[in-house]
Amino acid sequence: MEAKANGPSVNAGRVMDGPTNPMVTPLLTDLYQFTMAYAYWKAGKHNDRAVFDLYFRKNPFGGEFTVFAGLEECIKLIANFKLTEEEISFICETLPGSCEEGFVKYLRNIDCSDVEVYAISEGTVVFPKVPLLRVEGPVAVVQLLETPVLNLVNFASLVATNAARHRLVAGKSKMLLEFGLRRAQGPDGAISASKYCYIGGFDATSNVAAGRLFGIPLRGTHSHAFVSSFMSPDEILERSLHRSDGSSTCEDFVSLVQSWLSKIQWSKALGNSVGETNQSELAAFTSYALAFPNNFLALVDTYDVMRSGVPNFCAVALALNDLGYKSVGIRLDSGDLAYLSGEARKIFQIIEKEFGLPGFGKTSITASNDLNEETLDALNKQGHEVDCYGIGTYLVTCYAQAALGCVFKLVEINNQPRIKLSEDVSKVSIPCKKRCYRLYGREGYSLVDIMTGENEPCPKVGERILCRHPFNESKRAYVVPQRVEELLKCYWPGKSGKVREELPALKDIRDHCIKQLEQMRPDHIRRLNPTPYKVSVSAKLYDFIHFLWLNEAPVGELQ
């Protein structure tokens, strides 16, 4: 199944389709956005030209990187931002006091045709303080976008980052499956998690709805209930199975399985270690193989993994092999995954050698059972034979951290830079409309992100530039970039006439995310004690920040 394109599609006169979740409307906002809009309108300020930055202050999960996600849904919201008559009536009934007819007329005409959105590409590795989105437009309209845009970016970026961290721990060679639907925070949490886990590096999902909506590859076989629902092989009524090439038919596949089980039980290479297996489990495996001979993967821990599950799987797999089919593998959902995967691998390798079956020793082993970053790391340290991980609860709920904490701050109004001050320096905003660049070194890794004023010259390859910490005077360094990448691109031009960046296909976003992680220095993305990535401002912007800070901060008086 191919991932679908996320780009604009013309539909009944609309610029592009609306957000995936139909609940994402202009009313998906906090009440104070509408009370401010009314107050702006009353003051005649509603059309003042404002610039807001959306950014976060601290990387999640104790790490030093974040994956930006949710941009596509933001652009779809902005492209379709229009209040219905019913929504306007509800707003007017909800606002404190009476609502003037002029404001009702204003609400009827609100859209985002005069809004501009500049953003970092979705799937990019990002860092604190650097704007993920810059939204420009009439102040009342942009304020109405604040809450829904934050809602669409916060969880998306958090879960994409969580997925990327799991991918980094698992390694490039392992397959990662997202199994979180049943444990996610409601339907939207589940759909969003499936999409953004895929962006973060997962290979497939069990979520059928997400597969249909986004073209994410689907994976899934059977549960313990399927295995325990069978009582004996006598329940299998349809026993015939065509060869894979259609040349002939095995009339009694059940008997073929039983004959192979007998051979395994009498195998000297296995040391006669295989005794009587659970026949109801064997019946379930056989029935499933008859239904899906090309995709046979068995859940082997319903009764006993080594005494029953693995031998029964091997018997069915060898019978399928006789008919030209190749089994997928087994899934372990409980027990000591490192030990069990190793023992299962030994049996597969013995059977390959004993019965002359090339490749059987490499039969895939999937592990599930409440896995998370810590358990993956522990498995790596113990040594294991797992090829694929099915991960659910800890992944999709972002159990290790509840929220990312993105904020949406005014940085300019009517061409006048604005700053938000705080006794907590980490909460001081960086004023004015900015341009953001990523500077790369000789080895191809990114060295530093730098923010400059809008009208400052772009950093140039091979030319030394002073990079300063926004607030710490002593932290500064010269950088001679070997490559310069501008981060903010125009994804919604409004009336500016600028060329709009196309929204890429979901798989392209995923590929971009994986490439981004490869361009990061390993110590920045390691799991334990990662090195903080440097985010800086130009010397000119540094001077302006501190000039504005002193200008806006009231001077105290000692008595």
Automatic annotation (TrEMBL):
List the SUPFAM superfamilies hit by this protein, alphabetically.
Nicotinate/Quinolinate PRTase C-terminal domain-like, Nicotinate/Quinolinate PRTase N-terminal domain-like
What EC class is this? ligase
Q: Does the keyword DNA repair apply?
A: no
Q: Does the keyword Metal-binding apply?
A: yes
Name a single GO cellular component: cytosol
Q: Where does this protein act, in terms of pathway?
A: Cofactor biosynthesis; NAD(+) biosynthesis; nicotinate D-ribonucleotide from nicotinate: step 1/1
- EC annotation from Swiss-Prot or TrEMBL: 6.3.4.21
Entry keywords, A to Z: Glycosyltransferase, Ligase, Magnesium, Manganese, Metal-binding, Phosphoprotein, Pyridine nucleotide biosynthesis, Transferase
Domain named Nicotinate phosphoribosyltransferase C-terminal is located at: 433-544
Q: How is it modified after translation?
A: Transiently phosphorylated on a His residue during the reaction cycle. Phosphorylation strongly increases the affinity for substrates and increases the rate of nicotinate D-ribonucleotide production. Dephosphorylation regenerates the low-affinity form of the enzyme, leading to product release.
The GO annotation for biological process reads:
NAD+ biosynthetic process via the salvage pathway
MF term (GO), any: nicotinate phosphoribosyltransferase activity
What the protein does? Answer: Catalyzes the first step in the biosynthesis of NAD from nicotinic acid, the ATP-dependent synthesis of beta-nicotinate D-ribonucleotide from nicotinate and 5-phospho-D-ribose 1-phosphate. Helps prevent cellular oxidative stress via its role in NAD biosynthesis.
Q: Which NCBIfam families match?
A: NAPRTase_put
Q: Which family does it belong to?
A: Belongs to the NAPRTase family.
Q: What is this protein called?
A: Nicotinate phosphoribosyltransferase
Question: Mind giving the lineage of the organism this protein is from?
Answer: Eukaryota, Viridiplantae, Streptophyta, Embryophyta, Tracheophyta
